Every structure is written in C-alpha cells, then in structure tokens.
Amino acid sequence: MAWLFTDPLAANLFVVGIMFASFGSYAIYRFLFNRNKPEINMGFAYLLIATGVYSLFYGILYSIVVPTPFTVADGELFGDPMIILGVASILIGVLMNKKVSLAFAGIFTFFGGVLGVVYAIEGYKLGMSSPLYLLLLYLGAGIGGMLTAPLVVLPNKKAVQILAVLVAIAFLGVAILSFFIGTTAIGGHLVDFAKTRA
Q1: What is the distance between the alpha carbons of residues 179 and 198, in angstroms, rounded to a whole number?
Q2: Distance from C-alpha of 103 to C-alpha of 92, rounded to nearest angstrom
Q3: What DSSP assignment string belongs to 32-46?
Q4: Cβ atoms < 10 Å from Cβ of 196
Q5: Buried-state track 80-116, b at ≥16 Cβ within 10 A, e below 16
C-alpha cells in the first residue's frame, strides 16, 4: 500500500500531456485538414480511452481515497478536474470508436471547460500550487473545452477551421506545459523521496 503515499504528479502530468496533445492533434487532423480515416480515428479513440481511464482512476484517488499527503483542497484542486477530464476523454474515445457524432461530447466538454476556468481563477487567487502554471494549465484546458462545443457542431467550414486552430493552440499549449511541469517535478520529488529513505 506504500504507493498510495507517493506523489504521482509527474506521471499524471505526462498522461495529461499525452491526452491534450491527442486532443490538439485531432482538432488539426479532423477539423482543420478535414481528414477522416477510420484507422486513424480508431487509434485516437483507443489512446483517449486509455489515458481517460488512467485520469479517472487517479482523479478518484486524489479526491476520495487519499486525503494525505495532500490537503483536502489539493485533492479537490487536482482530483476533481482529473475525474471530469477522464470521463470526457473516455466519452470522446467511445464516441469515436462507435462512429457517433462528437456533437454529444460537446455538451460535456463545454461544461467541463467552464469548470476548468473556475478552478484556474480560484486556484490562482488562493495562490495554490504554482499559481501561474496552474492558471495557464487550467485556463488552456477550460477554454479549449468550451471551444470544442461549437467546433463539433458548426456547419460553416471557415468558422470550424478557425476554431480548430484555437482549440489546437489551447490544447497543445496545455500539453507542453504539462510536460514541462512534470519534467521539472521529477528531480525535486526524487530528492524528497531519497531523504525519506535516508
């Protein structure tokens, strides 16, 4: 049970980065370039389901199972959004796998995006975690999520292409920031863990 008391932040951020890199790449592939090959869609679908399951699992772990070493607020700050993100990723993956319109996922991504923006602002105001990184990370995810709703339903091709670029910028920005934060966290966390073993 010792793994419950380690900090999987770096791994979680890398998975979140992979997920958002996938979202951003798919926005470019499907909505900017207007490509729709079944085998590529299936690859994206399985990738999103896999990362979504991971995100959902750790979101539940943060929010419910492990109140320590995280504070309750940190559990809410990192756990609740991961649950929403995990469900959204699984939902999108399943819809793609079943060849169902992504318009149904747009409802979920819009409200999930609103939640991301709220967490960004409130976490920043409270100075939680690394406030600027937190603000940029959650704002990018939130704004991208909200823009995904019109992206998947608008009939105007030009508007869809513009939205695809904006969504891709937001999501790929989140991916890069996730990888950066995750990478920089590894060294500090290993030092902390090494001290506890000494």
Answers
A1: 29
A2: 10
A3: IS----HHHHHHHHH
A4: 8
A5: bbbbbbbbbbbbbbebbeeeeebeebbebbbebbebb
Count the neighbouring beta carbons within 10 Å of the beta carbon of residue 56.
Answer: 19
Tokens of 61: 């772990």
CB neighbour list of residue 64: distance below 8 Å, 6 or more residues apart: 75, 79
Kindly indicate the confidence band of residue 186, based on its pLDDT and cuts at 50, 70 and 90: confident
**Domains located in the chain, CATH noted:** 10-182 (1.25.40.600)
pLDDT tens digit sequence for 111-149: 999 999 999 999 999 888 788 999 999 999 999 999 999
* Sequence letter at residue 89: S
| Segment 13-70, tens digit of pLDDT | 999 999 999 999 999 999 999 999 999 999 999 999 999 999 999 888 887 765 555 5
Q: Would the pLDDT of 198 be above 60? A: no
Query: What separation in angstroms does the CA of 153 have from each of 76, 106, 119, 163?
Result: 32, 8, 26, 11
Q: From CA 184, how far away is CA 131, in angstroms rounded?
A: 15
Token couple for 8: 């999987």
Query: Per the structure block, which two tokens stand in for 57?
Result: 């699992």
